[in-house]
Amino acid sequence: MTIEIDWNNLGFNYMNLPFRYISHFKDGVWDNGELTRNNQLIISEASPALHYGQQGFEGLKAYRRKDGGIQLFRPNENAKRLQRTAMKLRMPQVPVDKFIDAVTQVVMANENFVPPYGSGATLYLRPLLIGVGDIIGVAPAREYLFTVFAMPVGSYFKDGLYPAPFVITRDYDRAAPLGTGGAKVGGNYASSLEAEVKAKEASYADAIYLDPSTHTKIEEVGAANFFGITYDGEFITPKSPSILPSITKYSLLYLAEHRLGLKATEGDIFVNELDKFAEAGACGTAAIITPISRIDDGEKAYYFGSEKVVSPLTQKIYDELLGIQFGDVEAPENWVYRI
Ligand code: PLP
Ligand code: COI
């Protein structure tokens, strides 16, 4: 097959690749799962995933190494997070081995779509678990589908590794204090859509949410976590039960401490203390690291380094993370999974 893809200008867009994986859960057991060319799901109109949001998903990437090989970044962590999401929404767990096998099959079957080393692009994988079947009362489904599909992607935020402005929203919460914010479920994104559209209309990269109880602390960005680096070199990310436990964020906390020699803390980030940060960024699988140039909060604006150049520690931690992900820098134990 001839593939004509401009690997350097992909953005973050769906592409109907030749193969995806699908497995069914019925009568209390998962079937073996298989690859299929069909990108359509046929499910009952009454499926709980459609009406009551009984679903969860994941996001991870396959990276092309310089030697031509392919590797995943911490896929076990995505598998375990999907299990926690499943527990929260009373769905059956996908065993870790099944998750990794499914992802591996999809990468191998679509190998021609894993972008070349050096393009900066990757193959994004989207595992999805949904409750299906004929249930119209509010109750967990008895049948489930687990699928994994993939697409080559570049930057999620339009300019990639280039400082971008964000805006604090005080009109919307993405999650409730004791809600599902810590799980990767569609409902959290449904409640972020209005704020996100408004933020983008006002030329921001995205909205930043505050803690839903007091609206005094940074929680996270609509599609990524948040970090700040203080003038005296402390790397801080928010700690809250209503934000997504981001695999990138925990990786950066580790790298900040063990590779950059910074103090690394997961703690409260009060909006009225944002001035203590020399650098700030959004981080996640899709977002990678997007430097934050400015955060607007009503009439107030907070600035973080240059609006045109990536700040030095952000660049350093970005190089370390991507070096590991693409196989150029030695990874901490079990961080990469060779396919
Ligand atoms: N927060 C939200 C709301 C996200 O959608 C994502 C993306 O997955 C993240 C944070 C980052 O999580 P991870 O680093 O595991 O991709
Ligand atoms: C990811 O980074 O994998 C995400 O899930 C973010 C997304 C909502 C595009």
UniProtKB/TrEMBL annotation:
EC number: 2.6.1.42
One Gene Ontology MF term: branched-chain-amino-acid transaminase activity
Enzyme class: transferase
Cofactor(s) named in the record: pyridoxal 5'-phosphate
Pathway assigned in UniProt: Amino-acid biosynthesis; L-leucine biosynthesis; L-leucine from 3-methyl-2-oxobutanoate: step 4/4; Amino-acid biosynthesis; L-valine biosynthesis; L-valine from pyruvate: step 4/4; Amino-acid biosynthesis; L-isoleucine biosynthesis; L-isoleucine from 2-oxobutanoate: step 4/4
Positions carrying N6-(pyridoxal phosphate)lysine: 184
GO biological process: isoleucine biosynthetic process; L-leucine biosynthetic process; L-valine biosynthetic process
Reactions accelerated catalytically: L-valine + 2-oxoglutarate = 3-methyl-2-oxobutanoate + L-glutamate; L-isoleucine + 2-oxoglutarate = (S)-3-methyl-2-oxopentanoate + L-glutamate; L-leucine + 2-oxoglutarate = 4-methyl-2-oxopentanoate + L-glutamate
Family matches, as CDD domains: BCAT_beta_family
Keywords: Amino-acid biosynthesis, Aminotransferase, Branched-chain amino acid biosynthesis, Pyridoxal phosphate, Transferase
SUPFAM superfamilies: D-aminoacid aminotransferase-like PLP-dependent enzymes
NCBIfam families xrefs: ilvE_II (TIGR01123), PRK13357.1 (NF009897)
Protein name: Branched-chain-amino-acid aminotransferase
Organism: Lactovum miscens
